[in-house]
Amino acid sequence: MLSRNPQLHYIFSRMKLAAECGLGMATLRTIPESLGLPLPKYSYEAPYLVLKLHGSAEDAVATLDPRLLELLNAEEREGWKFIASRPSITTPDYAKAMDSDRKKAQRQLTNFVNAGLLRREGKERFTHYEPAAR
Fold this sequence. Notes:
elongated; Arc Repressor Mutant, subunit A; alpha+beta
């Protein structure tokens, strides 16, 4: 396979995170999700596409902007570790995972939206939350 970065491709293929048939992006999403790790974050820093991989759930909090960290209490930081390992989350799922009531879960999810970490999609009972920046 022709690769733009053969060294990086070699490392990823040895870690079983790259595939020869263009399946690498799907693998980068499913493996972290199945292990409960934060999903990769993508950003564009001209002229490069930057991919950040996390080795632990704690990385999801540690890599947040320090100004955002100040806005989150200890429970919300734990909640962010959970959210970061999923492509989307609903209020009932978050409440169950955090062992809290629905109102508290809704309040925390709203705090994440206000901090710019999540965006709200859908309406009423079809509402779910997705990470704002991937």
